[in-house]
Amino acid sequence: MKHNFSFPKKEKLKSKKLIERLFKEGKHLNGYPLKLLYLELDSPMDVRIKTGVAVPKKKFKSAVQRNRIKRLLRESYRLNKQLVFNNSEGNFAFLILYLGKEMPSYPVVEKGMQTILQKFIKKIDNAKVD
């Protein structure tokens, strides 16, 4: 089985409408220092999960710092996304927010990413049972 560790353009969440819907209707999970906003989508898309990352300007004034954190978020998502792809059905939109107050190291971000993705899988499994 070949693992796909890429994060192609078509998997990126870019739609303003969809991002607004995520904030209005989406559910969320916390796994410090990250927060996952997710929304199940009815319409089939070309990919099962569209993902975006965000870092608040209020906590990180410097664009350089924000971009660095977003790079760390995207990288840890890219390496751990098979957790979700292999253990869930349906189409989703994800927005991963960084909630910490200081610059993270990669291991901190990766641990948070694994935590929220595992919580997401549990939540989806429980929703299927109900």
From TrEMBL:
Listed Pfam families: Ribonuclease_P
Reaction catalyzed: Endonucleolytic cleavage of RNA, removing 5'-extranucleotides from tRNA precursor
Domain of life: Bacteria
Keywords: Endonuclease, Hydrolase, Nuclease, RNA-binding, tRNA processing
Role this protein plays: RNaseP catalyzes the removal of the 5'-leader sequence from pre-tRNA to produce the mature 5'-terminus. It can also cleave other RNA substrates such as 4.5S RNA. The protein component plays an auxiliary but essential role in vivo by binding to the 5'-leader sequence and broadening the substrate specificity of the ribozyme.
Subunit structure and binding partners: Consists of a catalytic RNA component (M1 or rnpB) and a protein subunit.
Family listed: Belongs to the RnpA family.
Annotated protein name in UniProt: Ribonuclease P protein component
UniProt organism field: Maribacter polysiphoniae
